[in-house]
Amino acid sequence: MHLDYNEKVLKDLESRMIFLSGPRQVGKTTFAKSLMPNFKNSIYLNYDSLEDKKIIDKQSWRSDLDFIIFDEIHKKKNWKNYLKGIFDTKPKKLKILVTGSARLETFKKGGDSLTGRYFSIRKLPLSVVELNSIGKNNSMENLLERGGFPEPFYSDEKTHRERWRNQYIDTMVRQDVLDFEMISQIKQMEFLVALLRKRIGSPISYRSLSEDLSISAITVKKYIEILETLYILFRVTPYSKKIQRAIQREPKIYFFDWNLIEDEGARLENFFAVLALKHIYATNDFLGKRMELQYIRTKDGKELDFCFTEKEKILIAYEIKTSETDPAKNCIWFNHKFNIPIKQLVRYARLESFEKGISILPLEKEIESFYF
What we know:
20% strand, 8-stranded mixed sheet, globular, 15 helices, 2 domains, Rossmann fold, alpha/beta
């Protein structure tokens, strides 16, 4: 593993609260609880539990605690002010980790600013790097087939994995969305998710989706923002040195569970998008970088699937292929026109090559080089 996750989090806890966020059932609670043996007196409190809720509301935990885990506390009214008060008055020895199935750093329910009091850490589905680090020598193909969420990944029964996924879709749309905001037309949200699952890898049009769903483009955008806040999907924006132009252009949508995607090529692209985003999140969260995952597209439709950018500069661009080992025309064009470093990653390639300025290598080799 390129990153000692536990060691980094424990170090960060020395000076700040930790906001640990990520998709539902990705292993956040398991990871948070795994830190408890490092402390003499610790407690786990879940705001969804009636008994724990009373303890949280009254702050009636033991005074000798040195580690508290607050789970789903973003559901508490004025939760930011609550945490601010605890952090500002707590004993020096007390460490605090906050976790939940939402983007806690952007979750808007009012309250005072927590700036300077927390580090945000995002936990995403399993990666090849992560599995190798814990002695699980599972191939990329195994991860691609089973998905990166722990329960289906570790299950050897295909039927169990399929039942888990069906329940996961229902839970994430109905329960999580309704917990976040009252949506009167939950069926529209379900239809939107179904439409987006079939448009992986293509720039999406809010107007086109609004026509398909018979709702306004503003409502479509609002629904996608909610799904993004709840770690159900994420947007990848087009690269542009001018921020306003980038905002106006159409984003691409990917799901954190790549096995929601039926088309093989689209699933492969979604798979890489999640692992690339995990690499970027870990790099930003632990090293203080400001990298972004984007894609490149010209007005006449020439496109590269992904690029890593930092401070408006392209660090590397990627084109994802299933079996094509000859340099793609778009890769050659972008490399010649803009001198962009490009890697063509091929699922079934075994050997590396360098042709016409393009690095061609096995997809698995590249994702094994990621930070986490």
